[in-house]
């Protein structure tokens, strides 16, 4: 604990304060709330980023406490992803600092292998988050020079705050008329596990990012009749070119060539490997995939087999949804169709804006 924090803690603490072995001071505030003085940093989120930050702090002997709302590490991967998920990028681009993936794990690690790697990481660095604590509010007290981080029953006070709550904290549900009228199954991709329950049924996947495209493939392989909504322009690239990861190849080429030239090369490879996706009902944006990623953050879809199913007619591409009806959907092009299930592959959003009260003086990046 820093001298500053210790002094504040002492001055605020009452006779019931408890000093823990790892330097924290716990004092009751009232019958519901207690205050915990944390030496060093509080990290919010025990996903890969929070653990990576913790490991780096540990190496530098900076004390920290991780607060996680779920009851496990890597909750996104454990609780909100589908069974067939593998890393979209080769493992060398997904490894956490100071701890490589074991060599026996394949380049595109399976979901369970990635989870085991994250668990081994936490064990290796002896990282023990405080689970089941959702941060409801965090604000910086400029006069004390300390952060106050509040959960349901505790206020944590610390000098540094590290936000590692990810970009996938909350599912995004589309604002489309009639969603509540639909009488079939509706689920968000965060609830989808596999296609077993959908065999033989007609399913509409709304959204065509990496998750939507892969879940479409999974459903198709499980015997569902699948349509995927492609509303906007979209880049799809093969996951690999000549046996090399497209992502790794792009990173290498970008060291030598301008982004537009690399984009042209990727689009040529894509055309040779996947064919002309425009003929399948998918329109490419005017600017190339890497330039688009740089300018708008929009990630290209890395194809894992969905395009072949679209080409063979096993997966249908359909237009944007105008409204949901009790039995199906009306599309923006005026057509309509009936479905038994709808999977919303409409992405996620960060939840930071709902609990982080900041002014620019309290932030550094
Ligand atoms: C289907 C899918 C596939 C993906 N594939 C890849 C891939 O191949 N390669 C890759 O690099 N990335 C991939 N990603 C991106 C993914 O975001 C990263 O893999 C990684 O999980 C990000 O780590 P993170 O720690 O930043 O966030 P997260 O893993 O989302 O962890 C954030 C943690 O913060 C917790 N939290 C959130 N809010 C609060 C709060 N208020 N209080 C306390 N705790 C809170 C959450 O419960 C969660 O445990 C994929 C994502 C998805 C959804």
Automatic annotation (TrEMBL):
Ranges that cross the membrane: 36-57
The protein's annotated pathway: Plant hormone metabolism; auxin biosynthesis
InterPro entries: Auxin_biosynth/cation_transpt, FAD/NAD-bd_sf, Flavin_mOase
Enzyme Commission number: 1.14.13.168
Keyword Protein biosynthesis appears in the UniProt entry: no
One GO-annotated biological process of the protein: auxin biosynthetic process
Cofactor: FAD
Protein name per Swiss-Prot or TrEMBL: indole-3-pyruvate monooxygenase
Catalytic activity: indole-3-pyruvate + NADPH + O2 + H(+) = (indol-3-yl)acetate + CO2 + NADP(+) + H2O
Keyword Protein biosynthesis listed: no
Gene Ontology molecular-function annotations: flavin adenine dinucleotide binding; indole-3-pyruvate monooxygenase activity; NADP binding
Family the UniProt entry places it in: Belongs to the FMO family.
Organism: Rhododendron griersonianum
Key words, A-Z: Auxin biosynthesis, FAD, Flavoprotein, Membrane, NADP, Oxidoreductase, Transmembrane, Transmembrane helix
Pfam families referenced in this protein's UniProt entry, alphabetically: Pyr_redox_3 (PF13738)
């Amino acid at each position: 604990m820093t001298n500053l924090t210790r002094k504040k803690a002492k001055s605020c603490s009452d006779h019931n304060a408890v000093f823990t072995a790892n330097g924290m001071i716990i004092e009751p505030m009232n019958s519901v709330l207690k205050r915990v003085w944390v030496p060093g940093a509080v990290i919010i989120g025990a996903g890969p980023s929070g653990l990576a930050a913790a490991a780096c702090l540990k190496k530098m002997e900076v004390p920290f406490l991780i607060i996680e709302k779920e009851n496990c590490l890597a909750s996104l991967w454990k609780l909100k992803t589908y069974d067939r998920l593998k890393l979209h990028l080769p493992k060398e681009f997904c490894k956490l600092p100071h701890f490589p993936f074991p060599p026996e794990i394949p380049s595109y690690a399976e979901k369970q292998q990635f989870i085991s790697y994250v668990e081994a990481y936490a064990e290796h660095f002896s990282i023990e988050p405080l689970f089941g604590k959702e941060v409801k509010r965090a604000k910086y007290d400029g006069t004390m020079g300390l952060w106050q981080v509040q959960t349901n029953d505790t206020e944590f006070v610390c000098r540094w705050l590290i936000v590692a709550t990810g970009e996938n904290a909350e599912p995004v549900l589309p604002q489309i008329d009639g969603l509540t009228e639909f009488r079939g199954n509706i689920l968000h991709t965060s609830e989808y596990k596999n296609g077993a329950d959908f065999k033989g049924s007609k399913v509409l996947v709304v959204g065509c990012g990496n998750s939507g495209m892969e879940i479409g493939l999974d459903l198709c392989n499980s015997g569902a009749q699948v349509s995927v909504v492609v509303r906007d322009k979209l880049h799809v690239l093969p996951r690999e070119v000549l046996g090399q990861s497209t992502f790794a190849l792009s990173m290498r080429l970008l060291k030598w060539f301008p982004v537009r030239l690399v984009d042209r090369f990727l689009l040529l490879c894509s055309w040779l490997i996947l064919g002309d996706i425009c003929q399948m009902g998918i329109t490419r944006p005017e600017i190339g995939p890497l330039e688009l990623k740089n300018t708008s953050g929009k990630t290209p879809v890395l194809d894992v087999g969905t395009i072949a199913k679209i080409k063979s007619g096993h997966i249908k591409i359909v237009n944007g949804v105008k409204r949901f009806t009790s039995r199906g959907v009306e599309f923006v092009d005026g057509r309509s169709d009936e479905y038994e299930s709808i999977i919303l592959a409409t992405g996620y959003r960060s939840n930071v804006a709902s609990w982080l009260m900041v002014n620019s003086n309290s932030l550094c990046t």
